[in-house]
């Protein structure tokens, strides 16, 4: 396993594109650390506080904002999400690949701060597949699925701002492409 320089890898894409699936596989590599975001969204079945997200009340989230603890934050699908600054700075200084799975608004904020890193966009093969995956995931109420699909088109337009667009047709193929781009092979 080759040594890597510490770096930020940021992954965006529409809800249901397969970002979490790919991130869960990437963090099986000990050189990769996942950025656990804070959110005011309620946990889904199977999600663990501190592993998938730091689940906060709106008051707790506001307090962290006021304290300057977020490197970026955004409202997504009606909930607040934010990336904590301290763990990111520590992981990169310690030479790890720090993986952010955040939305396009957050990615724009990170870019504006000229934080160096690799910006990856995970795209679904087509709109129908995206719908099937979101419904098939079975974690969101029908109106939530519709809200996420409605936003997907806007999000897809943002893909030109990223370093690479990876079409998640087959998980293994997409994962291999992402691993190669990060430099995890070898
Ligand atoms: P996101 O994190 O982008 O919202 P998920 O990783 O939760 O998306 O994926 C949405 C659903 O699609 C999940 O049920 C997941 O198992 C499934 N999925 C992800 N990638 C693929 C793929 N390449 N082929 C088929 N199903 C997939
Ligand atoms: P979900 O609720 O499905 O886990 O995530 C919804 C959206 O919020 C996804 O697009 C995800 O990438 C984004 N997201 C998750 N964490 C953060 C974060 O810390 N900041 C921003 N800006 N978006 C985030």
Shape field: globular
Each distinct ligand: adenosine-5'-diphosphate, guanosine-5'-monophosphate
Number of helices: 7
Instruction: Please give the alpha-carbon distance between the first and last residues.
Output: 6 Å
- Widest beta sheet: strand line-up: 2-7-1-8-9
- The overall pLDDT, averaged over residues, is 95
Largest sheet: 5 strands, parallel
Please tell me the CATH architecture by its name.
Answer: 3-Layer(aba) Sandwich
> SSE order, as H and E?
EHEEEHEEHEHEHHEH
Let me know the CATH homologous superfamily: P-loop containing nucleotide triphosphate hydrolases
User: What name is given to the CATH topology?
Assistant: Rossmann fold
The number of E-state strands comes to 9
Q: What is the domain total for the residues?
A: 1
| Structural class category | alpha/beta
Strand content: 15-25%
